[in-house]
TrEMBL record:
Xref: PANTHER family: ALPHA-GLUCOSIDASE (PTHR22762), GLYCOSIDE HYDROLASE FAMILY 31 N-TERMINAL DOMAIN-CONTAINING PROTEIN (PTHR22762:SF131)
Sorted UniProt keywords: Disulfide bond, Glycosidase, Hydrolase, Membrane, Signal
GO cellular component, one term: endomembrane system
Protein name as annotated: P-type domain-containing protein
Organism of provenance: Rotaria sordida
Amino acid sequence: MAHFSAMKWIVILLFIWSTSAQQCDQPVTAARFDCYPEPFVSQEKCLARNCCWKPTNQFPKNRSKNSLEIDVPWCYYPRDFPTYQIKTNESTAFGQRLTIVKQQSTYMPNEILNLTVDLIYETAQRFRLRIYDSTKKRYEVPLEVPVIEKKVNITDYEVSLSQEPFAILVKRKSTGMTIFDTSVAPLIYADQFIKFSSYLSSPFLYGLGEHQQSLLIDVTNQWNKLTFWTRDTPPAQHVNLYGVHPFYINVEMKTNMLTNFHGQFFLNSNAMDIDLQPLPAISYTTIGGIIDLYLFTGPTAQDVIQQYWDVIGKPTMPPYWSLGFHLCRYGYNNINNLRAVIQRMHDAEFPYDVQWTDIDAMSSNLDFTYDQTNFNGLPDLVHSLQSEGKHYVNIIDCGISSTQSSGTYPPYDDGLKRGIFITKFNSTEPIIGQVWPGLTVFPDFTNASTVEWWTNIATTFHDTIPFDGIWIDMNEPSNLIDGSHDGCTNNSLDRPPFVPHVLGDSLSAKTLCPSAQHALSSHYNLHNMYGYFEAKATNLALKTIRHKRPFVLSRSSFAGSGQYTAHWTGDNGATYEDMYFSISDILSFNMFGMPNVGADICGFRDDTNEELCTRWMQLGAFYPFMRNHNGAQKDQDPAVFSWTSQQIMKQALIMRYSLAPFWYTLHYRAAIASETLVQPLHFEFSNDNKTLGIDRQFLIGRAILVSPNLVSINNTTMVHAYIPEDVWYEFPSGVKVKVVGVFVDLDTPLEKINIHVRGGFIIPMQIPGTNLMIGRGNPFTLLVAQSALGNATGNLFWDDGDSIDSIETKSYNYFEFLLISNKLTINAIVANYKDSPMRLELVRVLGVSKPVTSVTVNEKDHKGFFYNIPDQDTNRKNTCTSFRKTQSTLSFILGYSI
């Protein structure tokens, strides 16, 4: 300990005496709440905050990874730490309004001692808590959310208050389960430091992105710190990444054999840390804005997601062609290499829909240009692709070059004239950073004039190269230098009193100075939303340019971005570990309202290998968004590999393309009914504890189970997969699984990916074409998987695949399928799309329990049917054999328009 003066010792002893040992007596270390989250804590610094100091038994360097001592705060709040008390409490039309006051400041500068608390009873399942300065307007997130002026009469939750100290308790009425309780730690509310905590219902959570982590966040035996500040960095664990989604789903303990879920969304766009501890409890620490917290009571996980999407907005409906296979790389380098890839994909007869180019196709890395030397003929190539039913997407970075000669680069000249670039602090001059073209400025997408400028320059480029979609990258925003070319200021925005644990230890690390100014507010407040506003502007620009449904792909994202854009998970590595984490990524982003998501198949960084790429193409065929993309390494398009691997990849692609109508219908259901495209097994089988946290398998919709091999065959060809307790059939063989509700070892050689169809569902399919647009006119098929009772349901959405407003104008067809008592009925709920005939050619029924002697179609005998008994599955090991010979498949060939 440092040498103290006599006066300092007297102050410390007086504190210890006045506080009493009982206030610091906390025998359960998991119940300590960190009073000194900054680095380099010491006893002197801790006691200066009037907090408790008690080192744990083990020093950091000697701690075991499995020890509960890891990250236990040595400096923590005493039980009588000063906090707020309720001064007034009045009823309002929306619920209650409180004023809370604190008698003394504590340890952060500019502490706000007089606060207003709004308790808003928005819906039966949604409660909103807002805490803000009573006297001064503060920054609030410019996200359009529902405004509720009248309290709902009946709720699933009950709210109670503690007078002194102030605390809020929210319980589920039906079970009494606590879903929110702030009494665990004091509320700290300063100008640039807001911290509050709550009990968790259990140590099991899903969500809190964007981070590279397992699907289930389990804090049973560990402390976990997650940081939220958008950052351009290759995905790695324990660092802040490209997006900010402070939303989680908490698993509640079982009651009456039922598992409930609830969720929280912290509507705050400032830099923040979220700490999880094994009490279990959660603490939010943000450096700006207000407390604006939503609680969703579910009770199912899908209910929670729907309630969350009601706040942030439902995802956009993508164009049909975007459901196909996309191909890209950084490093085509010239038009001849690009043509060679397209030709070999054609010669190998791979279905694919979208060709992309990266920044190497630009002229000197300048946005809205192309290299007319190395990529001479690119416009003609794009026209050629489009004439074959394919599409083209180009990349646009947000950094606009500021060093081109005056009059030679319209994006900069016009933007400067309009004044639409982010500016320096207290200046009208644009802030200067550095990206791929050199020194750059950055468009301010919160400025209304920027959308018009963005649309105009994109339109001019589209006149040269008629792109079909836009890929917006580097939009965290990324900066190759810290802050700006001129450095940052020393004010409190650039040097706040507390900095969350961001990569680089500074808010300006590889991005702009927080003090930079947008039209709406400072970059300090809006940094995390930069990608959100760029995606919104790009979506609007594409609608204006193409008059068709837009396709945007964005790296950076914020809550609500799914209304405007798809997402990919960034610059991953060509490793089996990255392939594994991709499953958690796509499942999490489906929770976050961005269901059209995928990872760079085969890996972006480093050289892939044939086995890894083959496995990844199999898995990627079941991503919502499927793109193979890599950097300046060797080629990894499917046609570059051996004939054997090509056939395996092609088979996976054919499965994807045959399921395109099913995928498209899922997108429709997401857009209108807030249903996820993919989901964890635990969300569908929540009362089965064995499904908790499974993240090496996933469900597409509710009907298809995907169990990929995520390791090299040198390690194993077995997949240890869980088959939930229900009826399942292997796809595409139709073999029925005999033993369910257990983990089984599935033999999975390189040529196989395990796909199972769930009984009780009808899957609309289509005979594939070389791309989705060519295949649109092909006949449809129905795969009918019978439940244990012989029933099944399904649906199909179909329109022209491209119109902006087909859903709003009901210019589509929507069919519902029902199998009951051996009768299949097709009901046309909406039948307004007439431009392309829809022909049903084949119906395949799985799980037929006895020989079929007759089939009737439209009350007439139908002769074109056959049934068969699938072969025994010789590949399945251990307990799960396959299919009883009494179970067979009925198929009947039709030729009917639907």
